[in-house]
Specification:
single chain, 19% strand, alpha/beta, 9-stranded mixed β-sheet
Length: 527
């Protein structure tokens, strides 16, 4: 019998926590046709793994490549890490549906980056993805922020009864287009304005459709425990699957809360029988818009309205006083500009305390003035978490590893968070160097477990008839080479990557095979 590809002499980790074994994998027509210890087929191409680990391609369940995958379809920053599938549309923001003010905002923002946002409906966006093609599989989540903005724009009032009916109809129609789950971004506008009755519509529908809710919670700092409680109570009330995004407790006074949060999750899993998981990246910093430091309620009425308020001297002075109470100058020294409007590129990589003198009594006033000057077009890396929480988080049986990043080029004009380029090698490096867990369990957390969580069939495991999404990597050299100062460096140890049977990466070189598929919930295998 003939096959297209044979990978021989591999140390095979199947992705389902089974013990590793020495053997070979055969691939035919994009699927795995043989897994075993002998070579029963004649093959067009034979690759000698020389003892390297062959595992399923890594599944990034928390990605943000909704728009950037259209600009960079080779997805080099993902495949160089071994990622073969990304779930997009996280934190309440998806690329569709886009209507009204939300469409205007994102059309304007991406037009500056040479991407024309010429779609509104999910079907239009999906067609765009299929026409463009990419090197990785794309599985979309439906952003709550898109839904709310379509009904209420960026206004902060609660939805009226009529608006709730319209909101529920739009949500159901959108879910039926093939989204794998509904994502919440409750720390950002417009998600921040949602009340329990609005969220109940989403949790109830997600239960009926047997899809999970993923959530960037309202707060991940001082009131993180209360934010966890809010989500667990809603999930319990409606029997909804829950995925807590990038579990963290930032700020030194909150670092000790992680253990209590995990105890809450365990109680709900064991006593309430809730399906609750969480994900996290292996770094002690998060990255988001610099205006995250401002009270997000200022966006009630939209970004233009927020900008006008920011330019009121009395309001700006009030914000500066609030920031001086909420953040210390030590905090400010750990906030680093990662991306900013083109006329301020010289600030990329600088800490707030590099840009403004910490001795200046108007320090926070100057920070607010900068946010105003660039009209919210600035992102920052916030180094506000502690290393000792990472093993606690990753050791949990329902912990999944995810990057919380988008596809970015290696010549990006900014300095993206290093998770953009090194998440998965860094996690494996941590596991192997510090013996955090068996390597089979570590691989499960980035392959079989995320596939199971979202019901992704025929992927995430090395098994006959499954899709040939594979990564060949060296456990002795696997390493993240990125840093906060210089993130745009490829990791080491990823030898080769296949997506649907096509090699898209080998020894530092990306191949524009564009063999990835758009995976929709109602299409088994997305053939």
């Amino acid at each position: 019998m003939q096959c297209d590809l044979a990978i021989i002499n591999a140390r095979i980790i199947t992705g389902d926590c089974s013990p590793a074994f020495d053997g070979m994998v055969g691939v035919s027509k994009g699927r795995i046709c043989y897994v075993g210890t002998v070579q029963p087929y004649s093959c067009d191409t034979v690759i000698d793994a020389q003892g390297k680990i062959l595992s399923p391609g890594f599944i990034d369940i928390h990605g943000h490549s909704d728009f950037t995958i259209l600009l960079y379809p080779d997805a080099e920053s993902k495949v160089a890490q071994g990622v073969t599938t990304e779930f997009i549309g996280n934190c309440g923001l998806s690329a569709a549906p886009l209507y009204g003010d939300a469409w205007k905002r994102w059309h304007s923002r991406w037009e500056k980056k040479k991407l024309t946002v010429d779609w509104h409906d999910p079907e239009e966006y999906f067609r765009r993805l299929e026409q463009r093609k990419s090197n990785i599989n794309i599985a979309p989540l439906l952003g709550h922020g898109n839904l709310r903005a379509a009904i209420k724009s960026y206004n902060g009032q609660s939805l009226s009864n009529d608006e709730k009916r319209e909101f529920a109809l739009l949500t159901e129609n959108s879910v039926n287009c093939g989204f794998w789950g509904i994502s919440l971004g409750l720390a950002y506008p417009p998600g921040i304005f949602s009340d329990e009755s609005e969220l109940a519509i989403l949790f109830k529908l997600a239960h009926e459709k047997n899809i999970p809710i993923t959530v960037h919670m309202r707060n991940e700092g001082d009131t993180v425990e209360e934010s966890v409680d809010e989500m667990l109570e809603l999930a319990q009330q409606y029997g909804t699957q829950l995925q807590i995004s990038h579990l963290k407790a930032y700020g030194s006074k909150n670092w000790g809360k992680i253990k209590r949060i995990i105890e809450k999750i365990d109680f709900c899993r064991e006593q309430k029988k809730l399906d609750v998981c969480f994900d996290r990246y292996p770094y002690t910093a998060f990255n988001t818009d610099l205006d995250f430091i401002l009270p997000q309620e200022i966006f009630d009425g939209g970004h233009a309205h927020a900008l006008s308020k920011l330019r009121e001297p009395s309001f700006r002075a009030m914000l500066a006083k609030q920031l001086a109470v909420q953040y210390t100058l030590d905090d400010a020294s750990n906030i680093v500009i990662s991306s900013i409007r083109s006329d301020k590129q010289g600030l990329v990589g600088k800490r707030l305390t590099d840009i403004f003198s910490p001795d200046d009594p108007n320090f926070w006033h100057s920070v607010v003035a900068l946010i105003d000057e660039v009209e919210f077009e600035a992102e920052a890396t916030f180094v506000l978490m502690h290393e000792y929480n990472l093993p606690i988080i990753f050791a949990h049986p329902c912990a999944i590893v995810a990057s919380d990043s988008s596809v970015r080029p290696y010549n990006d004009s900014g300095n993206p968070h290093p998770r953009t380029y090194g998440t998965f090698p860094r996690f494996l490096e941590m596991v192997l160097r510090h013996n955090l867990m068996p390597v089979e369990e570590a691989v499960y957390k980035i392959t079989g477990l995320p596939a199971k969580k979202f019901g992704l069939e025929d992927r995430g495991i090395i098994k006959e008839h499954y899709y040939a999404d594979l990564v060949l990597w060296n456990p002795h050299t696997i390493a993240d080479m990125s840093s906060y100062e210089n993130s745009k460096i490829k990791p080491q140890g990823i030898y080769a990557v296949w997506v649907n049977g096509h090699m898209v990466y080998k020894e530092g070189n990306v191949f524009k095979e564009l063999s990835g598929k758009l995976l929709l919930k109602h299409q088994r295998g997305a053939d």
